[in-house]
Amino acid sequence: MMDSITIHEVCEVKESYVASLNALLLQLSSKPRPFTVADLDAIVKSDASHLFVVETDGVVCGMLTLGEYFSPTGRKMWIEDVVVDEAMRGRSLGRLLVEHAVAYARSKAPVSLMLTSRPSRVAANALYRSCGFEFKETNNYKMEIPAVEQ
C-alpha cells in the first residue's frame, strides 16, 4: 500500500529527476533518446512546457508532459509522454496524472486539449476515453529533423 501520492510540476533541475525520467522513457519507447540535464533545464525554463510527475512515497513513478501554444483557431494544449512505471501500474496513477493535466487545462480555458495514443496501447486508450476524451479520426504525420553537424 502506498502511503503518499503527490503530483507536481517539475520546476527545478535535479539529477534525480533526469535519472527517473530516463527510466520511465525506457518503458515508453523502444528507442528513447537519452534525456539530459540540459533537456530538463529547457523544459523548466519554458512557459509552454509543463512536466508533471507523480510520486509515491517520494519516488517518481510516472510522468506526463503538457505543451501549450496559441494558433488562429485558439489556445491548444497537447498531452505527451504519459507513462507510469510498470511496477506501479493498475493503481490509477495514470488517471491521476491525466486528471491533473485536464484540471490544469481547465484553469486556462477556453482551450482544446489533445493527445495521441497508439492503437496498441489498449489500456491507455480506454483511460483517455474514460477521462472524457473523444476519438478524432485524423491522420498523424511525423518528420524527424536531425541536428545539423557543424
Relevant terms:
5 strands, alpha+beta, globular, Aminopeptidase, five-stranded mixed sheet, single chain, 150 residues
Could you walk me through the main structural features you see in this protein, from its secondary elements to its overall organization?
- A 5-stranded mixed β-sheet has the order 1-2-3-4-5, sandwiched between helices.
- It is globular and about 40 Å long.
- Strand 3 and strand 4 form a beta hairpin.
- By secondary structure, the chain is of the alpha+beta class.
- The chain has one domain: Gcn5-related N-acetyltransferase (GNAT) (Aminopeptidase, 3-Layer(aba) Sandwich).
- It is about 30% helix and about 25% strand.
Topology readout:
Layout: E1 5-9, H1 15-28, H2 37-45, E2 49-56, E3 59-71, E4 74-84, H3 93-106, E5 112-115, H4 122-130
